[in-house]
Amino acid sequence: MKHVRALAAQPPLLREYNTNHPDEALRPADEAAAAWEAFKADRAAHAQLLDHLTRAQQGLCIYCEQRLVNAAGTLVPMDCQVEHVLPKSGAAGRVLDWQNLALACCGGTWPHHDDPSRRYQSKQNTSCGQTKDASVLPCDPRNLPLLDPLVQVAMDGTLEVDAACCTAAAVQQADVLRAIELLNLDCERLRKTRQDIGDDVRTAFVSLLLQIQAIPLTPLEQRHAIELFVAGRLQPDVRGNLLRFWSAERSGIGAPAESWLETSQALFV
Question: Gene3D superfamilies, per this entry (predicted)?
Fold first, then answer.
């Protein structure tokens, strides 16, 4: 769980839908599901919303950081859904409020994915909106800081909450821990994937450092080589999307990743 960009503005077709159907947004909370299905029936508006959310979130699930798009930038079938950060059934007015909308994965609920990080394994291995359900999340990833991350990925793939960073960000550590629990972000399916990604990036980084030591490079050249490596793992691709489970890459690289991010914040905010 990391800092996620929110929508900067209401997508035009959602605004048009809300203008043309003013009563839909005001339907009672117990009719929220019906109001949402009515909006989804406007396929163009729904597709535009998905596109805007994908670009805002740089292709990742708001919660677990699963990549929601393939290499071509197309949404992965059966692993993408619009998430109401505050439950749409919790109060009137939430269901079509663009500031309450985000993009999430389907939480490991479809059994036919080839990728084990997406595939349904057991109820205990579902996550994100599927386990949050109608609960209110105690902290919103869109409000988390980019630098000095509150959550880091340990070598075994588990999520660790940094108490000092929570204090600096005026966020209760207990709220972050509760959010991880509600979203089941440490389920085995996600933990194992993050561990594998961390192992891969650490192996690649150590290999780079050994190469640097074996070649007569100046300190400036060494720093440049490290920065190129970090950028290759952390910066958005040509379509603006990040690598899956981006925080596992970041934590696996360590301090050089944090140094690079300090000078590259504009790519993420």
Answer: 1.10.30.50
